[in-house]
């Protein structure tokens, strides 16, 4: 019974995909043909992978609900493989085609999800500082950052349910278990250092009551997005511990140059040149930055002295939000005044929804252009 219906769903889905890909392209305006696809970005094997956040809260909400279901399933597979494997030997469980197609059909039905109307509705929310009829890079960054923060908090709440074993709304260190991808892989990021250990936990516990509430737990999972001085200080301390090859408790120029400086430079450079500048040409900017950071002039960087660049060493959501804002403005700012009017946004609607195009869709797009050459 279950298998039969699964086969029918797949057949229907394939038929729909076939019809979509072979339907005649009626409108010359190519944006009309772009199909918005829902993403499902969560992955146990690579939870640190960063996907752009959805621009539209409504899309984010649909994606979030789908992702929750996928997460639950993967969580079960991880924690109780016996339950999952018994049912379908050698057969990956199928995505829920029905809901999946429904939600996507909704987004692609212009009577229901009218992208122009969405942008008109969202514009005043984004154009907030100041509300002057233009959306600046800063406003767009803040917007994306808000969306990302919601997303991150939502995932933390989901995580918290798993760790908060006695369901009192707090996670104690005894309750907390490091993520399986950390435990299973000795070489994974941070395992041999202080990450996910008691010191990290304590640094996240802002009020020092030995328990993490959701705010503190969210900070614990995402220290680089935290505003907590205690946690940022811990992050700097970890950084020194990792870089300090001669074990003097501070970062000297060599330790800085071979490692940290590249991270800061990559962060600052918007476009990465394919030609790598030579080692020599980098040493002088590196020395310059080092001496700027070295406030007490002892030719060593202390934990405190790393604070100004810690956000560049561990890119925060703000970094990704700005990247996304820059990309959108570069694509939609038709009159090149560096900011977006509502008209510019309406005329380039799909730039805002580009985060939910799949790679396949880009390919279709190229095909489309090819047809008209
Ligand atoms: C979307 O809404 C705009 C403005 O209300 C309208 O002009 C346009 O025709 C609508 N598009 C569709 C496909 O309904
Ligand atoms: C990690 O490596 C240490 C020492 O090499 C070993 O004792 C420990 O069992 C390993 N842990 C895991 C989870 O593989
Ligand atoms: C963390 O804080 C607790 C008190 O809440 C303390 O007992 C424990 O020693 C601290 N652990 C570390 C590693 O600092
Ligand atoms: C969690 O605790 C911190 C520190 O006491 C507090 O600032 C924050 O508001 C609390 N968060 C919630 C959701 O109660
Ligand atoms: C990047 O490439 C451009 C053009 O080749 C060049 O003018 C520029 O100096 C390069 N920037 C860096 C940081 O190497
Ligand atoms: Ca504005
Ligand atoms: Ca606390």
TrEMBL record:
Q: Which domain of life is it from?
A: Eukaryota
**GO terms for molecular function, please?**
calcium ion binding
What the entry lists under SUPFAM superfamilies is as follows:
EF-hand
Write down the Pfam families for this protein, in alphabetical order.
EF-hand_5, EF-hand_7, EF-hand_8
Q: Which UniProt keywords apply?
A: Calcium, Membrane, Transmembrane, Transmembrane helix
User: A Gene Ontology CC term for this entry?
Assistant: endoplasmic reticulum
Respond yes or no to whether keyword RNA-binding is given for this record.
no
Q: Which residues form the signal peptide?
A: none
Q: Where are the transmembrane segments?
A: 6-24
Q: Which residues form the EF-hand domain?
A: 198-227, 244-266, 281-316, 320-355
User: PROSITE patterns, alphabetically?
Assistant: EF_HAND_1, EF_HAND_2
Matching entries from PANTHER family are given as: CALCIUM-BINDING EF HAND FAMILY PROTEIN, RETICULOCALBIN
The name of this protein is EF-hand domain-containing protein
